[in-house]
């Protein structure tokens, strides 16, 4: 069983927002060589497909629940193959890097998620309960000021980053980012130390069904045998 990780915290005031693709990729590599835009995009895109599996008989919240569960499973499965540790603290699923410098939790975000210049995102209510329970149990105290001071005094520290995503029903797309939360109040994340904007992925279920069909039969050309003279 892997050891519990200790948290490091940045300044609780909001920090920089990185949206340039090359700079985001470079920053991900600084956090861990295992983190890439392509990998995170694949995880989010595959989880998005789960939304298209619901039927009229499904519960109203099923699409969102399936998408979140699939995102958690895919990210933790892929990173655990790179020797990251799967941890569940008070039923909150984390994945922790081999050197224990980074831990990632997956949260659904508000409409500002994955955008720059539209204000700062926060966690949505239905997923905020995950962070709320985590903090209330005072096991790791993600965002409180005493923890900021305590973490600075420790030699071994782990930063908890959030893979935050938002499904926009109007635009039929999911926007996402990997960001470092630094303050929490009234069940909501209120500040970010750093935001890495990862972009958006359109949801095109019709395209998915087309790709799932058998490939088109290649055209055939009838060839008439030549009749020649002897």
3D structure, described in words:
With 230 residues, the chain is an alpha/beta fold. The chain has one domain (16-209). The chain has six helices and seven strands, in the order βαααβββααβββα. The chain has helices at 21-31, 37-48, 62-80, 125-136, 145-152, 205-212, and strands spanning 16-18, 85-89, 92-96, 102-108, 159-168, 173-185, 188-202.
Strand order, main sheet: write it out: 1-7-6-5-4-3-2
* Average pLDDT metric: 77
Basic shape: globular
Give the class from helix and strand content and strand pairing. alpha/beta
What is the distance, rounded to the nearest whole angstrom, between the alpha carbons of the first and last residues?
84 Å
The tally of domains stands at 1
Number of helices: 6
Largest sheet: 7 strands, mixed
* Oligomer classification: single chain
What sequence of helices (H) and strands (E) makes up the elements?
EHHHEEEHHEEEH
What is the number of strand segments?
7
Report the portion of residues in β strands.
25-35%
Low-pLDDT segments, ≥5 res:
6-13, 132-152, 207-223
| Residues in helices, as a percent range | 25-40%
Q: Please give the radius of gyration in angstroms.
A: 22 Å
Helices and strands in order, then pairings?
Elements: E1 16-18, H1 21-31, H2 37-48, H3 62-80, E2 85-89, E3 92-96, E4 102-108, H4 125-136, H5 145-152, E5 159-168, E6 173-185, E7 188-202, H6 205-212
Parallel strand pairs: 1-7, 4-5
Antiparallel strand pairs: 2-3, 3-4, 5-6, 6-7
